[in-house]
Amino acid sequence: MKRLNRIEGQVRGISRMVEEDRYCIDIVTQIAAVRAALRRAEEEVLRDHVGHCVAHAIRSGDPDEQAKKIDELMDVLVRSER
Protein backbone atom coordinates (compact mmCIF):
# COMPACT_ATOMS: atom_id res chain seq x y z
CA MET A 1 0.00 0.00 0.00
CA LYS A 2 2.86 2.36 0.75
CA ARG A 3 4.22 1.90 -2.76
CA LEU A 4 0.78 2.40 -4.35
CA ASN A 5 0.15 5.53 -2.29
CA ARG A 6 3.47 6.93 -3.48
CA ILE A 7 2.51 6.18 -7.11
CA GLU A 8 -0.84 7.87 -6.57
CA GLY A 9 0.98 10.97 -5.33
CA GLN A 10 3.26 10.90 -8.35
CA VAL A 11 0.25 10.77 -10.69
CA ARG A 12 -1.35 13.72 -8.89
CA GLY A 13 1.95 15.55 -9.30
CA ILE A 14 1.90 14.90 -13.04
CA SER A 15 -1.63 16.26 -13.21
CA ARG A 16 -0.48 19.44 -11.47
CA MET A 17 2.45 19.72 -13.87
CA VAL A 18 0.07 19.55 -16.84
CA GLU A 19 -2.25 22.12 -15.26
CA GLU A 20 0.72 24.41 -14.67
CA ASP A 21 1.83 23.96 -18.29
CA ARG A 22 5.25 22.66 -17.23
CA TYR A 23 7.93 21.69 -19.72
CA CYS A 24 6.84 18.63 -21.73
CA ILE A 25 10.05 16.67 -21.19
CA ASP A 26 9.73 17.11 -17.42
CA ILE A 27 6.21 15.69 -17.59
CA VAL A 28 7.30 12.77 -19.78
CA THR A 29 10.15 12.07 -17.35
CA GLN A 30 7.68 11.87 -14.47
CA ILE A 31 5.37 9.62 -16.48
CA ALA A 32 8.30 7.29 -17.11
CA ALA A 33 9.02 7.25 -13.38
CA VAL A 34 5.41 6.29 -12.63
CA ARG A 35 5.51 3.51 -15.22
CA ALA A 36 8.69 2.15 -13.63
CA ALA A 37 7.10 2.33 -10.18
CA LEU A 38 4.02 0.50 -11.46
CA ARG A 39 6.24 -2.22 -12.95
CA ARG A 40 7.90 -2.68 -9.57
CA ALA A 41 4.49 -2.88 -7.87
CA GLU A 42 3.37 -5.42 -10.46
CA GLU A 43 6.49 -7.50 -9.81
CA GLU A 44 5.77 -7.52 -6.09
CA VAL A 45 2.16 -8.63 -6.58
CA LEU A 46 3.25 -11.35 -9.00
CA ARG A 47 5.94 -12.52 -6.61
CA ASP A 48 3.35 -12.72 -3.85
CA HIS A 49 0.93 -14.58 -6.13
CA VAL A 50 3.54 -17.17 -7.05
CA GLY A 51 4.70 -17.52 -3.46
CA HIS A 52 1.20 -18.05 -2.11
CA CYS A 53 -1.47 -18.88 -4.68
CA VAL A 54 0.63 -20.87 -7.16
CA ALA A 55 2.55 -22.60 -4.38
CA HIS A 56 -0.75 -23.53 -2.70
CA ALA A 57 -2.04 -25.02 -5.97
CA ILE A 58 1.15 -27.05 -6.34
CA ARG A 59 0.94 -28.33 -2.76
CA SER A 60 -2.74 -29.20 -3.20
CA GLY A 61 -1.89 -31.89 -5.72
CA ASP A 62 -5.00 -30.92 -7.71
CA PRO A 63 -3.99 -30.92 -11.39
CA ASP A 64 -6.97 -28.75 -12.40
CA GLU A 65 -6.10 -26.09 -9.81
CA GLN A 66 -2.43 -26.24 -10.83
CA ALA A 67 -3.32 -25.80 -14.51
CA LYS A 68 -5.66 -22.91 -13.66
CA LYS A 69 -2.96 -21.04 -11.73
CA ILE A 70 -0.37 -21.63 -14.44
CA ASP A 71 -2.80 -20.43 -17.13
CA GLU A 72 -3.61 -17.29 -15.11
CA LEU A 73 0.06 -16.54 -14.67
CA MET A 74 0.87 -17.09 -18.33
CA ASP A 75 -2.06 -14.91 -19.42
CA VAL A 76 -0.92 -12.00 -17.28
CA LEU A 77 2.71 -12.37 -18.38
CA VAL A 78 1.74 -12.43 -22.06
CA ARG A 79 -0.48 -9.36 -21.62
CA SER A 80 2.29 -7.44 -19.89
CA GLU A 81 4.61 -8.05 -22.86
CA ARG A 82 2.24 -6.36 -25.29
Automatic annotation (TrEMBL):
<dbReference type="GO" id="GO:0003677">
    <property type="term" value="F:DNA binding"/>
</dbReference>
<dbReference type="InterPro" id="IPR003735">
    <property type="entry name" value="Metal_Tscrpt_repr"/>
</dbReference>
<protein>
    <recommendedName>
        <fullName>Transcriptional regulator</fullName>
    </recommendedName>
</protein>
<comment type="similarity">
    <text>Belongs to the FrmR/RcnR family.</text>
</comment>
<dbReference type="Pfam" id="PF02583">
    <property type="entry name" value="Trns_repr_metal"/>
</dbReference>
<dbReference type="GO" id="GO:0045892">
    <property type="term" value="P:negative regulation of DNA-templated transcription"/>
</dbReference>
<dbReference type="GO" id="GO:0046872">
    <property type="term" value="F:metal ion binding"/>
</dbReference>
<dbReference type="InterPro" id="IPR038390">
    <property type="entry name" value="Metal_Tscrpt_repr_sf"/>
</dbReference>
